[in-house]
Amino acid sequence: MATRLLLINCYSALPKSENVRIHSDFMASPLSFTGFVWKNLMRRRLRTLLTLCGIGMAIGAFVGLVGFSRAFEQGWLRIYSSSGIDIAVIRQTFLNTSVDESVGAKLNALPVVAQAVPTIYNVMDLTPEVNALAYGWIADSFEFQSLKLLSGQPFRDGHAEVMLGDLLADDLKKKSGDTMEIQGTPFKVVAIYHGGSGLEAGAVIMPLDQLQQLSSMQGKVSTFHVRLRPAPPGETAEQYMKSAQAQIQAALPGLRAVPAAERASNNQFVRMAQASAWGTSFIALLIGILGIANTMAMSVFERTREIGILRALGWKQRQVLVLIQLEAVVLGLGGGFVGIALGWCALHVLALLPQTASVVSSSFNLELSAEALGIAVLAGLTAGALPAWRGARLSPVEALRHD
Amino acid sequence: MTNPVLEVRSLHKSYDEGSIEALRGVDLSISAGEYIAITGSSGSGKSTLLHMLGGLDTPTSGEVLFRNSRLGSGIDLDTYRARKVGFIFQAFHLMPTLRAVENVQVPMLAFNRPGVDRAARAVELLGEMDLKNRAGQYPNQLSAGERQRVAVARALANDPEILLADEPTGNLDSVNSARIMEILIGLQKQRGMTLIVVTHEREIAQAAPRLIRMRDGKIEA
């Protein structure tokens, strides 16, 4: 802003020999605290750039991995919501626990239950290169309503038949009428379908009894998916859900009735994806934090005398601390923006790869980006804390003597 | 002596758990507006005394009073350094990443002074130092004499009552030395500032109205 700047004209007063050493018109803008921070960071550009890359990679890993796990979670949520599942009945004590298939009769006898269908889900190696989610359903399951048949007919119970999601069919180069071998058993591809979720479009669905045989789960299922009858008048959806949960759990001791939305975000696959995403991100962030801490420690050491000058000029300890912390936060924030860009680039690439396209969403997630920036700022604050504290505690006279 | 701006009473300073005694009982009273030169051989304690007077260091025993307030208890050291004293160092100690005009603004960042005022004040001070045309230069683009004049402008940024100069001409040739001393003495006379200069140089020391000779941590009689 013109009014905030003071123009110094300096040409006329100087001998010609000095003209080359000066700017003809110099705008004397006020030095701000943040401007001072920026100039300090720009002093060692390569080091600052490398530090930004370090924290950027860490935040990128967070955005990519956590974004992947959230897309996975969203996929599950879409499966549950599109197929009209209200409640999942599970044992859920250990990973891969199972429920007796006979429970289905008791569930279907309950007045609140419109239909309860058994389901098995597992991850299966279809070829050495391709693995996919495999669902075991019964032929008259209400879950079929979320699928759109592109070709063929639904499978029949008791037959070695499978239906392939369109993404998986493309990947395996299979069409209706083809045969494929699963764990040594030939299966006929009876239909190709399109699913609302990538987790369905990239999956194989087969008769429950066939998957029970393949996974040695005869008489067992992973879960029962329940569709409730409509809520009675005067009862809210929430009250009805709680009441239905209570009735199911009372009728089936040892089992849990979990609302579909909760189940979508809390099943074993999602929890494993979340755990691995957060675990890997944590390690990457730790390395990023160490990078910033190292940069800030070096910077404080190199600028010991300058810190002494600032203290001699009347800067308070708190101001020196804030200066150094701000530098670390700017590094964290800059790395955060770099990381968000890297993370979304990675998600875009994953969304294009056939192996991962079914579960990855490349759409921009504002909430995840805000979380990433928050973590980046926190990383900067954490990394800068010790160097800032040490810098602020320097005795002015000792700092001025520093070489 | 009337109206002392600084008083030093029984000042002792030792280092390394008392094995090195830099000051051994210094008593001194300095009037407002006085120009004092402190001289002595290396290790005599003159710089240590200057640091104590400027609130850069704290005494092992004894006290330094600024207008009857004890430094560190009666008046906060940071506030004292920021508002009451201006430092000029032998090695200039300018921030290498900042332009001359920005260096002058650094002491003003310690307060909530509006940015436009800071820049205007810095330009005004550089003008007084005949450096307006060099305001946009970085320290490494300035001559030694120019750097020291920027440092003087910086020392004046917050209108201090006292100027403390530690060997201000130590890194300058004779022409620039004479100019810097002319500026400092001019400031002392025109603004009524108290000027305390530590120097090795006999001419500068002898030109001061009051000369303090230090030896082995004490003021020589």
Overview in brief:
The complex is a heterodimer of chains A (403) and B (221). Chain A has helices at 16-19, 33-43, 45-82, 103-109, 166-172, 198-201, 208-214, 237-251, 260-265, 268-302, 304-312, 317-352, 366-393, 396-401; strands at residues 6-9, 25-28, 87-90, 99-100, 113-125, 131-137, 147-152, 161-165, 179-182, 185-195, 204-207, 220-221, 223-228, 256-259.
Could you please describe the fold and organization of this structure?
The complex is a heterodimer of chains A (403) and B (221). Chain A is α+β, with helices and mostly antiparallel strands and 403 residues long. Helices cover 53% and strands 19% of the residues of chain A. Chain A has helices at 16-19, 33-43, 45-82, 103-109, 166-172, 198-201, 208-214, 237-251, 260-265, 268-302, 304-312, 317-352, 366-393, 396-401; strands spanning 6-9, 25-28, 87-90, 99-100, 113-125, 131-137, 147-152, 161-165, 179-182, 185-195, 204-207, 220-221, 223-228, 256-259. The longest helix of chain A has 38 residues, at 45-82. Mean pLDDT of chain A is 85; it is low at 1-24. The radius of gyration of chain B is 17 Å and the shape is globular. In chain B, 33% of the residues lie in helices and 27% in strands. In chain B, helix 5 (144-155) runs parallel beside helix 6. At the A-B interface, helix 2, helix 11 and helix 14 of A face helix 2, helix 3 and helix 4 of B.
